[in-house]
Amino acid sequence: MSTYRTFDPEKFDLRQWHPYMIGSFFPRPIAWVSTLDEKGTRNLAPFSYFGVFSSKPPVVGFSPSTSARTGGAKDTLRNVQVIPEAVIHLVPYNLAHKMNITTGEYAPETDEIALAGLETLPSLRVRPPRIAGTPVQAECRVREIIPLGNNPGAGQLILAEVLLLHIDEAVLDANGLPDPQKMDIIARLGGFWYARIRAENLFWMKQPRNPEEIVTWQELPQDLRESTILSAAEIGHLLAFRPAWIHEAASWPLPKDPVTLHTQMKALLPHDAPAAWVLYKNAER
Ligand SMILES: Cc1cc2nc3c(=O)[nH]c(=O)nc-3n(C[C@H](O)[C@H](O)[C@H](O)COP(=O)(O)O)c2cc1C
After folding, report:
1. What is the Å distance from ligand 1's center to 21 Cα?
2. What are 87-136's pLDDT values in tens digits?
3. How far apart are alpha carbons 84 and 80 in whole angstroms?
4. Which of 13, 140, 221, 227 sits a CA distance of 20 to 30 A from 175?
5. Please, is 218 exposed, middle or buried when counting C-beta atoms within 10 Å of its C-beta (0-12, 13-18, 19+)?
6. Residue nearest atom 5 in ligand 1 by C-alpha distance
7. What's the rounded Cα separation, in Å, for the pair 84 and 145?
8. Nearest CA to ligand 1 atom 7
9. What is the reported pTM?
């Protein structure tokens, strides 16, 4: 059993508490946000307090905090208060160093796109430009800004509606859908750590759509529950493909050679869970 240390945010100041927030809730995708000020100065900054909240309407949110350094609003927030438009990009690994340049809290008149040596593409529905070389670019209109406090460190949650989504052809699969294996996106973790989302770190697990498809943990035969051969994801697939006979399995003797059986089942997973179940049913007992 784990033992837990418990932390009460009320007992920490911002500087002490922030590492627990960024270090506990991750991985966070990074919204690399392009905006304009009223004079047309381009601004680009990364925000990992970022999430997706609705598909239709397509709404994303990111949250510039009141600056701990100056006590004032960050340029991105000030910009969208004047021109409520933004382009949100995901950051590919090969632009990580340039993203890091754009995080500096530069004077508002600084063009961070130029500073980082980035190329742009024109947007079609909003005024801020798109950053070339990013695999996903969302042209957004700001719908709502929700202040979560006035103190330094308090987020100003910006909810933005996606008007147009641009995806690099190179990261689409044969069906025209975004392929996570091709994107090489980075995510922010705690401290100065990042994760790189690459093909070798991914696993695929079918989501059961309705309760009739699911095998519950109680129904899963004991040898499978305790398997040291099948991974959590592989068992996840088995659970998502309910065989009609599973309720009978509870009364069957356990397989004679579970190691060989599980190894054979493993070879069929993740793509053919029904066939893995057939092997299980026909195993010697
Ligand atoms: C990967 C990464 C993620 C960040 N996420 C946030 C965030 O979610 N909220 C925030 O206020 N600052 C965040 N920052 C810091 C801002 O990028 C930084 O304050 C920046 O200067 C703000 O730019 P602006 O003043 O041009 O808007 C992050 C920095 C990095 C490197």
Report:
1. 15
2. 999 999 999 999 999 999 888 899 999 999 999 999 999 999 999 999 99
3. 4
4. 140
5. exposed
6. 47
7. 10
8. 47
9. 0.95
Confidence of residue 137 (pLDDT cuts 50, 70, 90): very high
Give, using CA atoms, the residue closest to atom 28 of ligand 1.
Answer: 47
| Interatomic CA distance for residues 99 and 192, integer angstroms | 13
Q: Are 132 and 120 in contact (CB under 8 A)?
A: yes
CATH architecture of the domain 9-201 equals Roll (2.30)
**pLDDT, tens digit (0-9, with 9 covering 90-100), for 149-187:** 999 999 999 999 999 999 999 999 999 999 999 999 999
Residue in this structure with the two tokens 């330094």, named with its chain if needed: 152
Q: Is 30 in the pocket of ligand 1 (CB under 6 A)?
A: yes
Query: Both tokens of residue 186?
Result: 């980075």
- Ligand 1 centre from 103 Cα, in Å? 6
Using the 8-state DSSP alphabet, how is residue 98 labeled?
H
User: In whole angstroms, what is the distance from residue 200 CA to residue 164 CA?
Assistant: 30
Q: Are 229 and 236 in contact (CB under 8 A)?
A: no
C-beta of 31 in contact with ligand 1 (< 6 A): no
